[in-house]
Q: What sequence folds into this?
């Protein structure tokens, strides 16, 4: 008998794993209603709120009316704080659900980790995503979002509007990479594009992308410029 057969470490509930199926993606099972408290709860116990596109639009327009151009930074910072805390919570859940209480997310397949993180956000209405890791050797990650909750609530403004998403991605990848990361939206539905596109990386790289974006470069041109450096 060969001694080269792979060894599998089972994820046993007795070691901290969860019983039952994983990656629960059915809306009727993901949401629950606590009628007594008047609350919508997610499967992990977090409280959620159901809002309309009009609410999201008015929230952004109201903040911009109050603080002007600083509204973009405010939404970015809110997204950053949210993404950072959400990833900390998610990492703990993954450690038990898929790591048997022993393996952390950095010991798991990167794409599997991020697909597991994003899917609940798809369920809650934040859109479908596509993760592009082909620029990792350049220190960059690209994310595409289709049906952004923010962008689809806004008119065609000719400029990026998904600052909350950009901040969230910056916070998430700061946690995962264990190094400060920033994010910029280099293409947006509100600019007439089919999808929103985000670039995550070190500050110097994001600053360069921001410069080219302000110069009118397309997402493809920005990525080509950064890839050639």
A:
């Amino acid at each position: 008998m060969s001694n080269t057969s792979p060894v599998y470490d089972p994820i046993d509930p007795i070691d901290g794993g969860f019983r039952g199926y994983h990656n629960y993606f059915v809306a009727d099972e993901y949401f629950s209603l606590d009628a007594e408290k008047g609350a919508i709860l997610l499967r992990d116990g977090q409280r959620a709120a159901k809002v309309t596109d009009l609410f999201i639009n008015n929230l952004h327009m109201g903040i911009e009316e109050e603080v002007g151009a600083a509204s973009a930074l405010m939404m970015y910072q809110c997204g950053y704080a949210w993404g950072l805390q959400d990833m900390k919570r998610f990492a703990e859940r993954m450690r038990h659900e898929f790591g048997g209480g022993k393996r952390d997310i950095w010991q798991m397949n990167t794409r599997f980790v991020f697909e597991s993180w994003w899917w609940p956000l798809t369920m809650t209405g934040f859109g479908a995503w596509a993760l592009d890791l082909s620029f990792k050797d350049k220190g960059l990650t690209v994310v595409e979002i289709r049906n952004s909750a923010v962008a689809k609530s806004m008119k065609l403004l000719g400029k990026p509007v998904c600052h909350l998403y950009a901040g969230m991605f910056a916070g998430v990848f700061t946690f995962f990479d264990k190094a400060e990361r920033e994010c910029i939206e280099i293409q947006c539905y509100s600019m007439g594009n089919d999808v929103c596109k985000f670039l995550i990386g070190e500050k110097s790289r994001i600053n360069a992308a921001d410069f080219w974006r302000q110069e009118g470069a397309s997402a493809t041109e920005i990525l080509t410029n950064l890839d050639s450096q």
